[in-house]
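Reposting from the mailing list since nobody answered there.

I have sequence plus structure tokens for a pair of proteins and want to know whether others read the tokens the same way I do. The first protein:
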Amino acid sequence: QVQLVESEGGLVQAGGSLRLSCTASGRTSRRYIMGWCRQAPGKEREFVARISGAGGSTYYTDSVKGRFTISRDNAKNTVSLQMNSLKPEDTAVYYCVADPSSSGWNYWGQGTQVTVSS
């Protein structure tokens, strides 16, 4: 089992930046693929970004490419999401996730709210 705890989100103006962090505990000896998903009000959860176990490979959904950067520090068991040039449509609850499977991500954090004002 892996437990994921996100840092506090926040309120930011459009065009601003925010950094989210997630700390993993439990079976962290296994270097899971990790990522971030989000759920906006009235919408389904969507994938945002993921990073390989060693951190050498990343992938982003088109809407955040060039604005968001995912990274990880395996020595500290953390994964981060640097969000720049934020837009009101980035407003959502952001979830740290780990260990993707054919049925979705196996581990989820509790979520943290990010609100971007126009």
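The second protein, same order (residues first, tokens after):
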Amino acid sequence: QVQLVESGGGLVQPGGSLRLSCAASGSIFSINTMDWYRQAPGKQRELVASITSGGSTNYADFVKGRFTISRDNAKNTVYLQMNSLKPEDTAVYYCNVHYYIFRSYDYWGQGTQVTVSS
């Protein structure tokens, strides 16, 4: 059974920083992509950033230059360093791991709340 556990969310003032972590446990193929999504109240879930097991990254335009995604393959953990946070970054942040071997595998964490407010 695959489990993803996020941590690091909380309340931060505008301009502040947070670092999210997501640890994956269970049987996961080593070649995979790990993503961070977010969902604000009343809005659809959106992709924030992704990173492959080879280290290739991709960012949504609204976080470029502010957020950095990284991973530790030995620990099956993905991180999201969030700097220069804005009130509009307030959302529940979700971790996702996905890969394809004969069929699609897609796993989600439970989410961690990030609130940016003064």
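Reply #1 (J.P.):
I read it the same way you do. The chain has a mean pLDDT of 96.
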